[in-house]
Q: What sequence folds into this?
């Protein structure tokens, strides 16, 4: 029942934010994670996200929401984006404001359509399975649900939130869709193992599909002020008053994640569904998880991100992740499981085990007043 | 009996050679070890060597022997050197040719004087003790001996050759000078421990002091062809024929170390003496031995070579040696006992335990055809 056509009245919202601090010094405030080709595919995470969504939403069906400072870089990477397909945030207001603004603007332009949010900094493998999950999610969304796509948890990760599924929806065209019993925060290791054992829990990838009227209707109930502000901005968006209204309203909007604002409360009243995703997914949170996505150079298990392996000279090394990002030769002798990130103005040397703690190093760099390195 | 005056008719020969391959990528063929300030003293090893010798040999009593390609850099670092105080080697012919040429040229210029050879890439601490040892060595040299200064072995090193002492010379003015029973190659660990236990063995620092007539006389007996070649070059050195004679004779000279050519055979016939040195000495062979000469930044025992510690941001590191040589920030998280050498065109990451094996990495860089990095 797989279709290969673009889905009618469906729009993909791509929030492009997040500094990717744990990928410093590769990822910077001025050039964050989503602008980088981390997997050596030849496409940045943002470009790969657009490539992935075009078959289901169409080239004209993608709307990007990103910070003012990243608009130019995003347009450079996605030249096909229409002028009105990029919504610029003067300052970050978290995912509910970003996704809600795009939903409200799309409803102003196209009426009650189905929208889906797909973060710009995730890695997906298995295009057919991804498209199939989206198509089922849209069917469930048309039936009035807020629909998430739950990722098959391949390990008891404590880095992700989980979505807990219940009974099947039993919808034509969405055979695998299930009711959602609730969402959970990042669990501890023991809890995560229980989740895996139960078979009811999947990773929450932050993908939410819903009719704009449904999503914004829930928002109006849960967060009336935020909803009103977004509606006011959306009404002015395609008019000369946009900048004036944005300047007046946006800064005062509540900063809250879509999970807390809508997904969790609505799940509690049975309004959320989940389509199990059977595709490979990772949010590439740090250099160790990035390494897991990369092929090894040889049996020693070293990995090179970008650059050409010729940039790296290795003797008796193993499991080391190298990012040769300055054009210099990186010479390694007798080191195992290190992370070496070489950029023109900053060098990082740590271990794969410490990859999650790179954030603390970035804090130390900030405390040193080396802001131009952030 | 310590004198503070310059020693009459004494000249210091400073062979400035050796690529310092185990200090790559800091030390390069084009800018070798002796041109670097490794200890953060503000002076390069070459400059520190000249500073150390000036009180005993005088500013006019120092003669440098170095490769053609290093002459400009040496003169830049030692502007006080007279024009004729630098002897350039068109290509390396090992230490006997270098020291022998300087000795022969000095005898042409000044007659039978005392010369001493002091390598340009060694680190000495304890100026007064050094001068005292040199003054005793000169006294023994005037008595007709080839005199070496033996370094008190602080550990059973397998990286150095040793000199074995015998009975006292009993010379006025050289109260600590001893007969030399022989020289040894680098020993294995067990042998080195025996050497230390015996109290008869000291490190051979390659310091040799002798009258030119004595040194060249022994050379004439041991290596007549080499001696004849050096005499021929020396006779032409301060004449217009220098370049012509060098071009004709130098390339054909035997490549042999002064230890094998003179010190060892002459010791066998009782002609060598040793003055025990009580000063601190190291040849800074690799990054681990360099680290031993540097103060720690804190209790964690990290060391920074050159640069300013502000170039290095550390969290939970220990015993790591950092050479911040590119002006970039080096950020370290949770790594112990590493060696990180950051230069504008090459980065080295290895462990202190592997410091001696850096040579193999340089070989690998050469095999890659990256000759401009050597």
A:
């Amino acid at each position: 029942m797989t279709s290969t056509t673009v889905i009618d009245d469906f729009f993909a919202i791509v929030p492009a934010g997040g500094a990717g601090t744990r990928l410093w010094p590769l990822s910077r405030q001025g050039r964050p994670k989503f602008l980088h080709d981390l997997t050596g595919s030849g496409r940045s995470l943002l470009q790969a996200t657009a490539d992935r969504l075009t078959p289901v939403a169409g080239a004209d069906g993608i709307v990007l929401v990103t910070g003012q400072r990243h608009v130019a870089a995003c347009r450079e990477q996605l030249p096909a984006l229409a002028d009105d397909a990029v919504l610029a945030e003067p300052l970050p207001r978290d995912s509910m404001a970003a996704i809600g603004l795009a939903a409200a603007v799309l409803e102003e332009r196209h009426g009650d359509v189905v929208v889906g949010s797909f973060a710009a900094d995730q890695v997906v493998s298995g295009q057919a399975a991804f498209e199939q999950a989206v198509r089922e999610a849209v069917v469930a969304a048309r039936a009035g649900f807020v629909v998430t796509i739950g990722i098959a948890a391949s390990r008891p990760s404590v880095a992700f939130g989980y979505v807990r599924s219940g009974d099947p929806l039993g919808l034509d065209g969405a055979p695998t869709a299930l009711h959602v019993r609730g969402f959970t925060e990042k669990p501890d290791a023991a809890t995560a193992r229980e989740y895996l054992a139960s078979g009811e829990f999947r990773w929450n990838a932050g993908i939410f599909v819903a009719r704009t009227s449904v999503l914004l209707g829930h928002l109006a109930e849960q967060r009336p002020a935020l909803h009103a502000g977004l509606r006011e901005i959306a009404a002015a968006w395609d008019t000369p008053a946009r900048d004036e209204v944005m300047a007046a309203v946006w800064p005062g909007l509540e900063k809250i994640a879509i999970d807390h604002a809508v997904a969790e409360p609505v799940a509690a009243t049975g309004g959320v569904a989940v389509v199990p995703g059977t595709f490979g997914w990772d949010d590439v949170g740090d250099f160790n998880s990035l390494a897991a996505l990369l092929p090894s150079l040889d049996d020693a298990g070293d990995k090179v991100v970008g650059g050409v392996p010729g940039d790296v000279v290795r003797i008796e090394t193993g499991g080391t992740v190298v990012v040769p990002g300055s054009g210099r030769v990186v010479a390694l002798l007798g080191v195992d499981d290190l992370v070496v990130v070489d950029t023109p103005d900053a060098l990082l040397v740590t271990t794969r085990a410490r990859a999650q703690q790179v954030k603390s190093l970035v804090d130390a760099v900030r405390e040193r007043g080396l802001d131009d390195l952030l």
